[in-house]
Amino acid sequence: MSGPRPLDGVRVIELGQLLAGPFAGTMLAYFGAEVIKVEPPGEGDPIRGWRLLDSSGTAFWWRSLGRNKKSVTANLRSPAGRDVARRLMAGADVVIENFKPGTMEKWGLGPEDLRADNPDLIFARISGYGQDGPNSSKPGYASVTEAYSGFRYVNGFPGDVPVRPNLSIGDTVAGIHAVLGILLALLERKQQRGTGGQVVDVALYEAMFNLMEGMVPEYDGAGAVREPAGSTLTGIVPTNTYLCADGKHVVIGANGDSIFVRLMQAMGRDDMAADPRFADNAGRVEHQEFIDGSIAVWTKARPAAEVIRLLEQAQVPVGPIYNVADMFNDPHYQARGLFEQVSSDQGDIKIPAILPKLSASPGRTDWPGGAVGTHTREILEQAGFSTDEIDVLRRDGDI
User: Fold this and answer.
1) Residue 132 designated active-site
2) Which residues, 6 or more positions from 256, have their beta carbon under 8 angstroms from its beta carbon?
3) Domain annotation covers residue 164
């Protein structure tokens, strides 16, 4: 697959490690940006060794997260290594970094340090709590900032320990916000209104705070604190997870008035379909326990496949709870092209497509994440480093 992509010609220097910054870089690279990932000499980004590893000791995850990126090594703790980064940043459109606030300034690589050489540079900064404010200097991993954002509080069952999804969702959501900010800044720069470069400041907790829907006005206007509600959604009925006869669970969302009627009719509960107490959401919320209990009795008497078949026939939103093996075996996932097979030095492997889909200029994976420093010489030569300079940098451990 080939063809133009929306970010063709955009050069990005990715200085971040682990997940939030690198995920932003992955999205940009997928849609055509030339992403140059600057890594520490030797082992590179720590995420190369995280979780399950292939026979070479490389994380399977890296094949996805490192896709389409050009790896350059530079020791940012040495003056010569920082000079390498500075020269690369001077010729870039975008820089992504997710170090602790103040680190780039300490190294002389902050936005103001680079403005004279590159006034149009878009400098995307991802941190736990943002670049300013009383918490800015605190270490902020996704686990902690998800809690601080209010997200963790509403997850789990009432009276129980707040639950964390088995994903670093705060990092990924922050990375998506960084991409959004970068694209907005690129659009602003294209308008030629004199803005030029600017800083995109993304905090992990604020990215998660952005998902909190109506919690703020509900609290300010009514003093309501939204509490955890298990597998339901506060104030919307019915939408829940229900156990079936074969031990599997299904999710049913029938909170629209007409959809609720169809659900009750499919269950053989015409009496509930016609009951004026349940005619609107407010009434259903008042009788949530009874409604959910009635649905649970019905689903528990049938295997999940039958529940899904009957409700799909009635045009009631329903679905199974999938694990990754289910995804692989599902024809809809396959038809939508959500798995891309790539070839690495350890053989073929499937990695996820990056969304969204574009009809005229879709993204694509050109190559999976490769070895540390694969593109160091190529990129430094393009940046004007001589062969002797590169050899000296390598000899001294600066690259």
Assistant:
1) no
2) none
3) yes
pLDDT in tens, 35-55: 999 999 998 999 999 999 999
Among candidates 39, 283, 98, which has minimal Cα distance to 272? 283
| Sequence-distant (≥ 6) Cβ neighbours of residue 57 within 8 angstroms | 49
- Helices (DSSP H) in 240-386: which residue ranges? 257-266, 270-273, 281-286, 288-300, 304-313, 324-329, 331-335, 376-382
Fill in the amino acid letter for 52: L
Q: Look up the domain containing 306 and give its range.
A: 239-320
Contact 290, 284 (CB under 8 A): no
- 215: buried, middle or exposed (CB in 10 Å: 19+, 13-18, 0-12)? middle
- Note the helical H segments in the chain: 20-30, 60-65, 79-90, 103-106, 111-114, 142-148, 169-190, 204-209, 215-222, 257-266, 270-273, 281-286, 288-300, 304-313, 324-329, 331-335, 376-382, 387-395
At 343, phi and psi to the nearest 5?
-110, 125
| Contact in structure between 28 and 94 (CB atoms under 8 Å) | yes
When pLDDT is cut at 50, 70 and 90, the band that residue 288 belongs to is: very high
Query: Of the residues 93, 171, 292, 398, which is catalytic?
Result: 171
Is the Cβ–Cβ distance between 178 and 96 less than 8 Å?
Answer: yes
Rg (C-alpha) for the chain, rounded Å, is 25
- Residues linked to residue 239 through DSSP beta bridges, in sequence order: 253
**What is the Cα–Cα distance from 257 to 281, expressed in whole angstroms?**
7
Reported as a single tens digit per residue, the pLDDT across 67-120 is: 999 999 999 999 999 999 999 999 999 999 999 999 999 999 999 999 999 999
Q: How many domains does the chain have?
A: 2
pTM of the model: 0.94
Is 54 part of a structural domain of the chain?
yes
Q: Which residues are bridge partners to 36 per DSSP?
A: 13, 70
pLDDT for the residue numbered 1? 65
Is 328 among the domain residues? no
Phi-psi category of 368—alpha, beta or left, where left has phi over 0 and alpha has psi -120 to 50?
A: beta
Residues 276, 273: Cα–Cα separation, whole Å: 8
